[in-house]
Specification:
The structure is a single chain. By secondary structure, the chain is mainly α. The chain is built from 19 helices and no strands. It is elongated and about 75 Å long.
């Protein structure tokens, strides 16, 4: 993991997993209890060592590893259960399995966390992703939280992977003999899935296209570089603390909620959900559509609506202050005023179901003034 990767917002998201309560209308299988998933051969629910967060969360600090995973068979194991051969195997194995993709026994190796309570599966977790990071490394909730708390082990409760973990699934099965597979070669198989542990790039250091962000009309070259809210905190700690307590700081993670997924998405549905939709990110994040060269180390897209969303990219201001130069606007490129706020705080069709009151600039400004 890159040294500049920050996990405080991720930790907050994971902790939120532990406290959410299922609503009357569930939209996704991963927020349903095992008994509600309509699975056959379901075993008793188990309590894991930590919350499952999903590959989207892992990706935020391990982009290179995520891309390697996408090219492996692990990323397609859930799809394999829908093939003709899978149905033939299931029929021969037991007459009770009409659909192997709904069999908890099959998903025991072709999926992750089918048998854990919904409260232990985060908003971004998807059973249909197959054999994900957390299948080999264990649930990532503690690992994510550990990124913010230096007193905890950096790995949290992460496991191996190890040959023992791999052989839990990669072992001879009578039902799979007809596939004619060679005996499992741990060393050879591990080489196919091994991913970089050094020189990884966090998502904020990659171009928008490499981040999988949809609906970005053009990559912007701003008048200055984005430095990130953490850099602002060095001189403006009180303002930073006020921002951290505001809804602005959680705007990005608002895109990972069940409500966000259920809304009519501007532009259309996207792979990765609203958090990968450029139209949504234009108001829920900062700098999602700028070139990577215009985002300095320490800038984090997941900081949501950060200082620079209202004040503009801050590298000019930072440099002017360091050099004790008196420059127009203190080197900032944007004024935080009613017009800046109204760019996002305006009536939007997709947000009608939220029934939020009309935006009142004086009242809203008082909540975030610093």
């Amino acid at each position: 993991m890159t040294s500049g990767c920050r996990g405080w917002a991720l930790a907050a998201a994971v902790l939120g997993v532990m406290t959410h309560s299922p609503s009357a209308a569930q939209y996704y299988e991963d927020v349903m209890e095992p008994a509600q998933l309509g699975l056959t051969e379901l075993r008793p629910a188990r309590t894991p060592s930590s919350a499952y967060v999903g590959n989207d969360v892992c990706r935020q600090c391990h982009e290179a590893a995520y891309q390697k995973w996408l090219g492996t068979a692990h990323a397609r194991t859930s799809v394999q259960l829908r093939t003709q051969i899978a149905h033939a195997i299931a029929k021969a194995e037991t007459a009770n399995v009409a659909d192997p993709s709904r069999s908890a026994k099959c998903l025991g190796c072709h999926g992750v966390a089918v048998d854990v309570p919904a409260a232990w599966r985060g908003p971004g977790f998807r059973i249909a992703e197959g054999v994900t990071c957390e299948r080999c490394h264990g649930p990532g909730g503690d690992h994510v939280a550990a990124r913010e708390d230096s007193t905890r082990g950096i790995n949290g409760t992460l496991e191996g992977p190890s040959e023992t973990i791999c052989r839990t699934c990669h072992q001879p099965k009578p039902s799979h003999e007809r596939l004619g597979r060679k005996p499992f070669d741990y060393a050879g198989s591990y080489a196919k899935v091994a991913h970089p542990k050094t020189a990884e790039k966090a998502e904020d250091e990659l171009e928008p296209a490499a981040l999988g962000i949809w609906y970005v009309d053009s990559v912007i070259a701003p008048p200055a570089s984005y430095v990130g809210s953490a850099a602002c905190a060095h001189c403006h700690q009180a303002a930073y603390d006020r921002w951290r307590q505001s809804a602005h700081a959680g705007a990005f993670y608002g895109l990972r909620t069940e409500t966000a997924y259920s809304m009519d998405l501007a532009g259309g549905p996207t792979i990765g959900g609203p958090a990968r939709n450029g139209v949504c990110l234009s108001c829920h994040a900062t700098g999602h559509d700028v070139a990577a060269a215009a985002r300095q180390p320490g800038f984090r897209l997941r900081d949501g609506v950060g200082c620079e969303k209202c004040h503009g990219p801050g590298s000019g201001h930072l440099q002017a202050m360091q050099e004790h130069r008196n420059v127009p606007g203190h080197g900032l490129t944007q004024a935080a005023d009613d017009g800046t706020c109204q760019a996002c705080h305006r009536p939007q069709r997709t947000h009608q179901k939220l029934e939020a009151p009309a935006f009142d600039y004086p009242v809203a400004w008082e909540k975030i003034a610093h």
